[in-house]
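Dear V.,

Thank you for sending over the compound details. I've combined the ligand you provided, fe (ii) ion, with the protein sequence from our construct and run the structure prediction for the complex. I'm sharing the raw inputs here so there's no ambiguity about protonation or stereochemistry in the SMILES, which I know was a concern on your side last time.
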Amino acid sequence: MKMGKVDAPATAARAPGYRPVHQGLAERLACFHDEMKRDFDGINRIAIAIYDPATDILKAFVHSSEGDNPFEHTVARLADLKPLAALARTGGRRVINDLTTHVAGTPAHAKRLLSAGYLSSYTVPIFHSGTFHGFIFFNSFQTGYFTPEVLQRLRPVAEVVSLRTIMELDAVRMIQAAVKTVRQISRARDEETGAHLERMGRYARLIALRLAPRRGLSDEWVEFLFQFAPLHDVGKIAVPDQILFKPDRLTPEEFNVMKTHVTKGLEIVDTMADTFRVGGAPYVRVLRNVVAHHHEAIDGSGYPQGLTGEAISLEGRIVAVADVFDALTSVRPYKRAWSIDEAFAFLTEQSGKKFDPDAVELLKNSRSAIADIKSQFAETDLD
Ligand SMILES: [Fe+2]
Ligand SMILES: [Fe+2]
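Below is the predicted structure of the protein with fe (ii) ion bound, written out as structure tokens.
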């Protein structure tokens, strides 16, 4: 069986103290699919897409597909997918028992399924406490597979897949919420605005999505990177105020203290992972890599470990570019906002020195998406 990949590529370094343990949702879904085959031999693909209400975007998340997965790395605006938007509104389910006759309705999507050999589909929206979170798609190589009898038996199965998805997303949100709370009750630097974090997370996702086909990154991994990129500086809560808020240049000694925010951040992540008993989960691994490596540089001039090249996790390499790009293009008390071109010129100059050349190149190819993100998450007085 072909299934969604969960791990970052083998070249990515593990953050110090890495502890391997449990499976990601993609692996669990694949096992579940295997078991289901006993009762539902005609189900050849199960896929989950999740919804981001802030941008009305539906994103491929995990899948277990026997044929090709026609929606790998697919992102679409829900409003543009009329039939699915209707299901999200009403909570209804959709059965298409012959995709060949359905090409007229949602041509592009039905065609992609057909070309991968799928002939029928059953779509179930995922709701939790009345809120829409995404969809489960069941597909079959057979026409007419989803009979009323199969649908009835499939109902509890869809329920279980829904719940597991919600649990996974909740665990990620729980960690985000914990970090957010800690930061709110302590203090964050002025420049760490909500808008900065929104934008840099989305820049990281842009780079990761474009890198995904080249590096075999799963949509699940891309999603975790997006969710956790904004937590890169969690360790700053452990840096003393007089250093964190110092308006002038830091002395070398002060800078050394500032650098400890990376290891402090890792300690915070590990404490949280232990508290929530999620240590070793794939998403915690992504979070650890983000925190551990966001100040490492390709040429070894970064900190705290001075790692070089591919020894730096991909999470760290992507987040470094996304974070610096947003810092450059934002106003700070001590500098104006650089234009996108000026920031690109800086990244290009530092490509292969401080920054991963692929990450720089892919961000530079994303000009219109960057403009959308900048206008949607502009700085406000509330930040
Ligand atoms: Fe940092
Ligand atoms: Fe930042």
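A first observation: Residues 232-233, 261, 294-295 surround fe (ii) ion (ligand 1) (CB under 6 Å).

Warm regards,
I. M.
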